[in-house]
Amino acid sequence: MKRRRRSRISASPVLVGAITAVIAVVAVFFSYNANKGLPFVPTYEVKAELPSAASLVSGNEVRIAGVRVGLISEVKAEQLDDGRSIALATMKLDKSVQPIPEDSTVLVRQRSAMGLKYLLLTPGKSDQGLKEGGTLPESQAEEPVDMDQWFNMFQKPVRKAIQKNLAEYGGGLATRGADINKILADLPPLLRLAEPVGRNLASRKTDLRGFVRGLSQAAAEVAPVAETQADMFVQLDTTFAALAEVARPYIQDSITEGVGSELAIIRNGPTIRSFLAASTDFMRAFRPGAKALGESAPVVADSFDIGIPVLRSSPQLYNELAPTARSLRRFGESASNNQGLNSLIRTNEILTPLLRQVTPSQNVCNYINLLLRNVASATNGHTDEGNQVRAVSVLPPIGVNAEGNPAATYAHGQKFIPPEAEGDRAPNKNYLHSNPYPNTAAPGQSPRECEPGNLPQDWFTGGWNNAVELGNIAGDQGLLTEGQTQQQLDWVTK
After folding, report:
1. Would residue 423 be called left, alpha or beta, if left means φ above 0 and alpha means ψ between -120 and 50 degrees?
2. Which residue segment(s) compose the domain that 21 sits in?
3. pTM across the whole model
4. Is-contact 124 139, C-beta < 8 A?
5. Number of separate domains in the chain
6. Long-range contact list for 419-425, CB < 8 A, 24+ apart?
7. Of 10, 110, 392, 393, whose CB neighbour count within 10 A is largest?
8. ω into residue 99 within 30 of 0, thus cis?
9. Same domain, yes or no, for 32 and 46?
10. What distance in Å separates the CA atoms of residue 374 and residue 251, rounded to the nearest whole number?
């Protein structure tokens, strides 16, 4: 009996080729899908809304603190209700980080200078975790700024200048390793000295921000004349060529001595700092006065024009001042003069209240002028031998208790003889009317009026209220009298 041969796979080339082809297809499949995660490996899928995908693509890594924790499986654009477009990135994370806090943030970062990106996931502090399939909102995504975007803020000439600077600095630093090491060794002493300088620059009293702002404004002011300044520097070459002839020894000596001057400033600077601070306060306080002086400069200039001739003639005045001062001194030392001045002062103190009361009689009511006019009127009648005083006899009627005959009491409205003239209400009743101190617009009098000369007509005929009237009559009689000047009328209207 023959033994049957056992068949082997390696004995069949067709079978070996088929198995090899299957293995290759599976390897390609796994390689193609490796960017989306290995199959049969459980993942924790969440999404994130990004303001911009910034060239983020499927297969890019997701990292937490620099450690890879997942992949980007899909990136697509979505349009919001307000019309804006955002990117929606789907992440497949390891189960080890599930769940991430709801307040976690995301940021698209560069992985290399070639443009490769990854998504940086920063876990938050919330106690609530994001559920499977949950979405981090756009408000928790930071806007990335790529290097090309940063350089695009410069204009094209500036970008070319930056490229040239990088090339030149690269060539300048090449093979300079030993020198750079020496600089690094010398930096600590320099930094120790620079520390107090840095504190002074950071101090609010230094106002470095205002200084930089002033430089910015100055640069903005000189920008329109940049070409003119460039031409000025070209022309300065001619000037410096001329100065080269005197560079030695004068300019050279000034540079040499300048070192000592700077050292003196450094040594004396702390001493004069208080003086400079006081000068700053003085200039700040002087600023309003300087502004006012600028506005009044024309007036000041005119005063100088007028004052110069006056000052030229002032020596004559100065020559007379000395004897005048001696005379004043003798006058002040005289006892009789002092007694006279004291008498004048006391007289003024006595007359001031009187004049304060009497002055309005003339300034407002014009009574002195009226008195003089009446005196002149009383004497204007004349004969062949000269003027004569005119007199009119004014006698009150005779009656019971009247003012024209003896009476037992004051006139208080009793009938006259004969009583049947016009009845009990006849106007020929006699009343006592007396006002020895009438109002003359003086201070303290109320009302302010010129009462003499403005009394009602029936005050004289006995019909004023048919009653006895003593003192100022009721009501305001006004301030107008005869013959008042315009100045007196102005006083009346005040």
Report:
1. left
2. 10-41
3. 0.31
4. no
5. 2
6. 425/466
7. 110
8. yes
9. no
10. 100
